[in-house]
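Section handout 9: paired folding examples.
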Amino acid sequence: MEQLGFWEVQVSPKVVNVASVPQRSPFRYPGGKTWFVPRVRQWLKSLPAQPKLFIEPFAGGAIIGLTVAFEKLADSVVLVEKDEQVAAVWQTIINTEGGAEWLAERIINFKPTPDSIKTLLASETSSVRDLAFKTIIQNRVSHGGILAEGAGLLKNGENGKGILSRWYPATLKRRILDIATVRNEIKFIEGDAFQQVNKNLDSPDAVFFVDPPYTASKKKAGSRLYKHHQVDHEKLFELMSQVKGDVLMTYDDAEEVRDLAQKYYFETRLVPMTNTHNATMTELVIGRDLGWVR
């Protein structure tokens, strides 16, 4: 046990090899949860029965929800996202007939140069599809994939390739078309996380994976990463304590978060992860019964 604050939090020693996890999302998403995929598999398989509904109310890059859909770990998946740019991508791929194919071809046919990229990013968009394409480009050429205001474009990038160092059109096309093959198992909703949780509050067959912007602690790390970073974390903990189905949350490890977990009778575990600089860090996993965490 590792002493943290005024009570103890169990630490899981196992670090997940991200390279072993299938990459499903077209996004480079700040705070993405690819490293957490094996943990979600463990959690869902530990439940008495397969969930009828898997809800990710802060979807973002949606790697968890996508994995659940691809691996059929729940009967159906609901992704919820408030950010209009991110939502445009999911609306186009999941909710729009032919949208995934359109977006994939637009990406393949785009000729990226510093000038064409800057022209595109400065342009107005007249449709959800156009906003989706613009968002994918911005996500790929911005530092850390950050879409919030103030995020600069890549300069040196990978191997000195600069603004194009994260541009992999064939890979993006494949991921988008792959998602289209499971879109009948996914429902995307552009909207507020709290509203969607409330709608499924009394369903014992719905489970929730909650990965909100990390702004509960004094560090407020998520405030510079996301447009919609303001979250009432106390209200969120209170709401999740009331759901009839199971719930799993991830947060940065902070005293404020552990206080909320204790107040609303959740268990906590520290789980190691590797960040983008290959340094091992820990995040706090929160749930009702975390006996499955190893």
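Moving on to protein 2 of 2.
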Amino acid sequence: MPTRHVLWAVLAVLLAGCTPSLGAVFDATPAYPGYTWTRDGRSVKPEELGTIAGPGHCGWESATFLTIGWPVGTPSNSSAQARQYIRDPRGVIRGSLHDRLDLNAKLPGDARPTGYTYNSVQVYLSPSDQDEAIYVVGTGGSERWPRSDPMTLCE
């Protein structure tokens, strides 16, 4: 169930009559199973593409974990069949992820949509840096989320 904070944020956006910014969408990402993404007009399971809040018991709930089956378009059955990208604007996860996050990214010239959408938000990959990052694009701009390799897990 969404937290009161999430509900107020959604209500504020609806009352303002505007499209939510990426921050409004991902600053309070819900826990698993997270948002329901679509591709080719169908909902996809989190094993194909999922965005969830980081685990609260580690204090990472302000971070968003995007996990995508690899290659793109396939569901993953294990971490070997998926890639993980993390949006951590508050730097709650130790390491260099915070330094590589770009909340005002410019899409590289070779970036292409993956076909995944959540409302007006789309996911893009750039062949020149898909091993390093993924791009999350909304009507108000785009963000570059760094890849976590190996995957970041909470102990």
